[in-house]
Amino acid sequence: MAAESSWFHIPRGSPFSLANIPFGIISTPSSATPRPAIAIGDHALDLRAFASSSGFRDLSVIQPHQAVFSEPTLNAFAALGRPVHSVVRKYIQSVFAADTPYPEVLKANSALQKEALLPLAEVTTHLPFAIGDYTDFFVGLNHAYNCGVLFRGAADALQPNYKHLPVGYHGRASSVVVSGTPIRRPCGQILENPKVEKKTPVFSPSRKLDYELELGAFVCKANKMGEPILIDKAADSIFGLVMMNDWSARDIQSWEYIPLGPFNAKNFGTSISPWVVLMDALEPFKVAGLENSEQVLRYMKEENKENVYDIKLEVDIKSKSGNTGTVTKTSGRHLLFSFPQMLAHHTIGGCPMKVGDLMGSGTISGLEEGSRGCLLEMTENGKVKVSLGGGEERAFLEDGDEVTFTGVCGDDETTLVGFGQCTGRVEPALKLYSD
Questions:
Q1: 214 annotated to a ligand binding site
Q2: 354 annotated to bind ligand
Q3: What are the catalytic residues (predicted)?
């Protein structure tokens, strides 16, 4: 792990310690052009300014590629490959270390500090990647089982294929937005009374708007059409992880998802955190995922059983009146399949992935009370309510509610590896008709 101490002030308990160095895209009032940065403490290091002032003078491997730090997305940097990501991260750690071997780069360079070290409160974050395609998986076993029990009963909660492959569907990349972007309540077809014989829908704003606590992984290596990414190489194709809220309209979903799966119930908005935590930073927190009672086929077999991450995840809901409740505490370890397994399965038929493609894990839920990753599970589809404090309760989200995800690895407050926040506020549905 990285050195614990830095010459630069990093507040105790910051998710962006020297052990982290996550990458993102920022702009500022004085320079509106988006460009790459890393988060450290409560500041961002502007990598365009850092590179243009010879900040990478002692890292020869990146010098021919410094133009990537002037791009408006991380795609070009990610395409350089994981070995380059690793050395760039380690170099930045060494520049900030208390005993830095490169004091002249930044520690003793007050002019560059003033130009390149920007308070996070004063920067605007943007989507870190240009996302070509987005695939959402469903590999949170506890969530899948709980939802299956709600709709089909315990005997048929999981489909026969569930433990043999990472179930997934293709989502809508155009509605993936960065944390802080408001999410408008969608309208669509809902079935008001599923028990009536004649099933006739009505058009309505969603009355069962929900969030889904997920992790997302960005692809950093393309494969040719017809050439799968094999499991022993799949990890090399993953740049890093973000937190993800795949907002869901449960009433629209329950009417439309048979036979082809979610459509309008999911495509209206997906929020992600702005800082991408590199796989190298997460390496110390690898743990075994959920035990699979089935033997997976050869193309998905991983040698290392520790293939997911112990990321402490929390969900807070803040109402329009300001009442806030922490409704979920769980862990990123509650997954049946790893991201390399998802990628190997995604490409086994020859699907070509591109740099910047995004994969979602599916909702992450634990087994205990208070560890469920969505309101559908927690409220048993609206039958019981969750307390927000101040006397407010929720079955599903109301207009003005703000949902915030946080995620962090580790217990030592000087070496936390965290994601920051993934936040979105619910805006009222558009009124499309006057009657």
A1: yes
A2: no
A3: 143
- Domain at 134-427, CATH class: alpha beta
CA distances from 37 to 41, 68, 146 (A): 13, 11, 40
Quickly list DSSP for 312-347. EEEEEEE-TTS-EEEEEEEETT--SS-HHHHHHHHH
Residue 136 marked ligand-binding: yes
Is 138 labeled as ligand-binding? yes
C-beta neighbour count of 298 within 10 angstroms: 7
Query: Is the separation of the CB atoms in 347 and 229 below 8 Å?
Result: yes
Q: Is residue 270 marked as binding?
A: yes
Per-residue pLDDT of the chain (435 residues; tens, 9 = 90+): 444 699 999 999 999 999 999 999 999 999 999 999 999 999 999 999 999 999 999 999 999 999 999 999 999 999 999 999 999 999 999 999 999 999 999 999 999 999 999 999 999 999 999 999 999 999 999 999 999 999 889 999 999 999 999 999 999 999 999 999 999 999 999 999 988 989 999 999 999 999 999 999 999 999 999 999 999 999 999 999 999 999 999 999 999 999 999 999 999 999 999 999 999 999 999 999 999 999 999 999 999 999 999 999 999 999 999 999 999 999 999 999 999 999 999 999 999 999 999 999 999 999 998 999 999 999 999 999 999 989 999 999 999 999 999 999 999 999 999 999 999 999 999 999 887
Asked whether residue 221 is marked as a ligand-binding residue, the answer is no
Residue 266, annotated as binding a ligand: yes
Cβ density class 21-37: b for 16+ within 10 Å, e for less: bbbbbbbbeeeeebbbb
Query: 43, 85, 126, 143: which one is catalytic?
Result: 143
Beta strand pairing status for 306-309 and 209-210? unpaired
Max Cα separation, the chain?
A: 77
Do 23-126 and 134-427 agree at the fold level?
no
Nearest to 116 by CA among 57, 179, 35, 180: 35
Q: Where are the domains of the chain?
A: 23-126, 134-427
Instruction: Name the residue among 74, 26, 93 with its Cα closest to residue 417.
Output: 93
CA–CA gap between residue 150 and residue 140 (Å, rounded): 16
- Our answer to whether residue 9 is catalytic in this structure is no
Pick the closest to residue 116 from 217, 11, 30 (CA basis): 30
Say what the pTM is.
0.97
CATH code 2.30.30.230 for 23-126: yes
Contact indicator for 82, 236 with CB cutoff of 8 Å: yes
